[in-house]
Design brief:
The protein has ten helices and 13 strands. It is an alpha/beta fold and 350 residues long. Strand 8, helix 5 and strand 9 form a beta-alpha-beta unit. It is globular.
Length: 350
């Protein structure tokens, strides 16, 4: 058992009388101390891991998923843990507090997390100012954008476009989050008609902001709870609107795979991530890869808790992977371990 799991994790789990969000906040404050460390002193990944996806060079295919550092307060520090890219957010046009606390729950036996955060964030204007202050982070930055809760669904397009416009100068790619289960009505934006309208507007805005240059990549983050038919319909829209890739998947409303001692806590409302999502997320990635003939890049996320999970996600068709819940249960060593395993795989196939 690692030092993190023996010593650090029990301390984190006791913070705030067991409130998982308190531990999250304290961890971010601690990581923020690394922001002042010069980039040349931070850890570097093996050149063998570098890969180019949708026109962006990633130093490693292992990234930090959206939700961990919503407001980007510790962005310079994540590189030290070995991440090859980071996705900030989900951020909304309007600042919002999110849902009432408690809203983050550990299902320890199942190695899962239930969250109903509700896009709590400081707003896209504040995030833009923070990103401007950082300058070059030394790795690609993704920005996940979502709909403000106060914005009616009928006005969702303008809300997303506002965030894209404010943040366009600072992100390397943009993730359109239409799949969180914690904003009322948001998942309806995955329906073909509404999604087409949204993606056309975002692409047109990106073209305008690019002043004639190729637009920055826009990806769509989808739910693991869609039927295969719904996924195929969504993929048709993405192809039609020239979307650069898919992020599969967000959290699930299903409670399949919970251990007996977690069933009661599993009744909490919200999206489930972690080990119960591993197989479902990987199957979704495999279906998208097969349905698109491998032509649409995929970021695989969901239930990656060890290097083998990451390898199998890539084998299923993902070009990149993201980790969140695995970091909570296995600690920062998971990132280095995963990088080493993927490097070994790459070298063995050459």
């Amino acid at each position: 058992m690692s030092l993190y799991r023996r010593l650090v994790r029990p301390v984190l789990y006791r913070l705030g009388r067991g409130d998982a969000e308190v531990a999250h906040e304290q961890t971010l404050r601690g990581l923020r101390l690394l922001n002042a460390v010069p980039q040349r002193l931070l850890g570097r990944t093996s050149p063998a891991l570098a890969t180019t996806v949708f026109g962006i060079r990633f130093p490693s295919p292992v990234g930090l998923a959206a939700g961990m550092d919503k407001n980007g307060i510790a962005l310079p520090a994540w590189r030290a843990l070995g991440f090859g890219f980071v996705e900030v957010g989900t951020v909304t046009a309007e600042p919002q507090p999110g849902n009432p606390r408690p809203r983050l729950f550990r299902l320890v036996d199942s190695e899962g997390i239930i969250n109903r955060m509700g896009f709590n964030n400081e707003g896209s204007e504040a995030l833009a100012a923070r990103l401007k202050s950082y300058g070059d982070l030394g790795y690609p930055l993704g920005v996940s954008i979502g709909k403000s809760k106060v914005t009616p669904l009928a006005d969702a397009v303008g809300d997303y476009v506002t965030s894209l416009r404010r943040l366009y100068a600072y992100g390397n790619y943009f993730a359109v989050n239409v799949s969180s289960p914690n904003t009322p009505g948001l998942r309806s934006l995955q329906d073909a008609g509404q999604l087409r309208e949204l993606l056309v507007a975002l692409r047109n805005e990106a073209l305008a902001l690019g002043n004639g240059a190729d637009p920055k990549p826009i990806l769509v983050k989808i739910a693991p709870d869609l039927t295969l038919e719904a996924i195929d319909e969504l993929l048709d829209v993405c192809t039609e609107t020239k979307i650069a890739g898919i992020i599969a998947t967000n959290t699930t409303l299903s409670r399949d795979g919970l251990k007996p001692d977690d069933v009661a806590l599993g009744a909490e409302a919200g999206g489930l991530s972690g080990r119960p999502l591993t197989g479902r997320a990987r199957r979704t990635v495999a279906h998208i890869h097969q349905a698109t003939g491998g032509q649409l890049p995929i970021i695989g996320v969901g239930g990656i808790l060890d290097p083998d999970d990451a390898s199998r996600m890539i084998d299923a068709g993902a070009s990149l992977v993201q980790i969140y819940t695995g970091l909570i249960y296995r600690g920062p060593g998971l990132i280095r371990q995963t990088n080493r395993a993927l490097r070994t795989n790459i070298l063995e196939t050459r």
